[in-house]
Amino acid sequence: MIKLDEAIIVEGKYDKIKLSSIVDAVIIVTNGFGIFKDTEKLELIRYYANKTGIIILTDSDAAGRKIRGYIKGAVGSGRITNVYIPDVFGKEKRKTKPSAEGKLGVEGIDADILKEAFRKAGITASENSTRSDITKLTLYELGLSGGSNSSVLREKLQVSLGLPRQLSAGALVEVLCTMMNSSELAELTEKIKEENNGI
């Protein structure tokens, strides 16, 4: 398992499942062309591009190239690394027929070939080997979810960290894990509560 600092952008949930067995990183799914209309997800991608850098890993077909190009244009100034998978012809096990171009997508590519694609793109493992201990339960315990004023508190936290306002609890946990541990989050949350008369 390779731990990466950068967030990885993939097209679908099966790509994410495949990558999760190889890398320990934040993986954002575009839902194919869904990214063209998903402003919240684009905000998150921009955030990561500027904070840690992003890795774009789309399929090697026309749709994958179109999504890759769109994200590059939408992100602008952030740090982007493109990882390309080779053209491998065939079909994924779960599919009844091959894709329009007959090539395997990210989910169908062998793990060793994927690791090699990362290596060729100059992606190396993170120096930071400790994993953050923030979970959804942490958010709940700190009053950032499940409480009467949770959404207000969560929004103030996100603004103070320069994050997009509209993040799901799951996305927020992923982002926070790249930034801090639970005691640092508790400290910051307490400070925000004090500044805002206990929200």
Automatic annotation (TrEMBL):
Gene Ontology molecular function: any one: ribonuclease M5 activity
Pfam family, one: Toprim_4
Biological process according to GO: rRNA processing
Protein name: Ribonuclease M5
Entries under InterPro entries matching the protein: RNase_M5_C, TOPRIM_dom
All residue ranges annotated as the Toprim domain in the record: 5-86
SMART domains for this protein: TOPRIM (SM00493)
